[in-house]
Design goal:
single chain, 161 residues, mainly beta, Jelly Rolls, 2 domains, 6-stranded antiparallel β-sheet, 5-stranded antiparallel β-sheet, 13 strands
């Protein structure tokens, strides 16, 4: 066995334990897996409830929000006032999706069409203030006011404060 093989023997492995180990400060820790070999990850300052993921990004309090509903017609990303910096979208459906970013019912940016299997990012350089609620509406048309469609599947991520 070469030196490289012996190093990778320790670097590229994770362990499954039916009872997770406890560590003291300064202890080295192995990567942990479930019984099927899937890596276990704990987001220390975040939470996941099955539909929403919030993770602290930086000390200024900017957060990422990610969600997917199948299908997703409308989602309220933040239900109060704030500042949005970026909205990232991925179309996981079979048809084109038209995405509107709204402050409640007020349009914050022009609608974006995302074809199936593609992604798009809407940037708001310096941030854009919203006063009611940061809302993402998915439609199948460019009609204004936008009308939600219950047939589209879109992943939504937003960086906001």
């Amino acid at each position: 066995m070469s030196w490289v093989d012996s190093v990778f023997q320790f670097l590229a492995k994770a362990r499954h334990n039916t009872v997770l180990p406890s560590y003291a400060s300064g202890d080295q820790a192995e990567l942990q897996t479930d019984a099927n070999g899937r890596l276990l990850v704990n987001l220390a300052n975040g939470s996941f409830d099955g539909s929403r993921l919030r993770v602290q990004q930086d000390p200024t309090g900017i957060l990422w929000f990610a969600t997917q509903a199948a299908p997703l017609a409308t989602t309220v990303v933040k239900a109060s006032a704030g500042r949005v910096h970026r909205v990232a979208l991925t179309n996981d459906g079979a048809g084109a999706a038209i995405v509107w970013v709204l402050d409640g019912s007020t349009v914050l940016s022009p609608p974006v069409q995302i074809n199936p299997g593609f992604s798009a990012v809407i940037d708001f350089p310096g941030g854009r203030t919203f006063t009611t609620a940061l809302t993402v509406l998915v439609s199948d048309a460019f009609t204004a006011p936008p009308t939600a469609s219950a047939t589209e599947k879109v992943w939504v991520g937003a960086k906001y404060e």
